[in-house]
């Protein structure tokens, strides 16, 4: 999942970034409200973690602007303000959940998972396409019960394809999903990751749609033959 993390305190921002990345998310960060508002308006995110006490522009103003622009991503508010009226103001502005500082990182990750499951039809902890099963919580993939060893980029490419199973996903979408905004995004490298995945998945699992992108295909029968070691043509 692509997460927008907005926190002005550098140490906490670094800790949150590390925890979210270790949970398998691609994370963009912002340290002030103006940058956060811009990113939330021009980029597509699956969710946002938003501090209220931000420089330049406060979090409530940012959140209201996102909702006025029709930005639908679920937003988890982080704030040191524990007063009940602050919580109500955040919810009224369009927040989906609220977490007061200090907090345990495990609770934040659990709340974020719950938001994604509740508000996104593709955000279950487990996804399956034929013999392929992906556990987003454990960052684990199995084929017919056999665990696969994937790099972080291979996992992220497969996760997006699993979310959109049966639909075409463009190279640009895949590139934006796995690389932070400030990285050099090269859609040609996606071909490399797809090629590696094809060697690890049952033959025919990832179809190329010329000029458009890739599609994950349910190959239940192929998966059984692959697991038994029977060679199949792609």
From TrEMBL:
Superkingdom, natural source: Bacteria
In-chain residues carrying the UniProt-annotated modification 4-aspartylphosphate: 51
Keywords from the UniProt entry: DNA-binding, Phosphoprotein
Domain Response regulatory, first and last residues per copy: 2-116
One Pfam assignment: Trans_reg_C
Record-annotated DNA-binding residue ranges: 124-218
InterPro entries recorded: CheY-like_superfamily, OmpR/PhoB-type_DNA-bd, Sig_transdc_resp-reg_receiver, WalR-like, WH-like_DNA-bd_sf
Domain OmpR/PhoB-type residue range list: 124-218
Protein name as catalogued: Response regulator transcription factor
Taxonomic source organism: Comamonas terrae
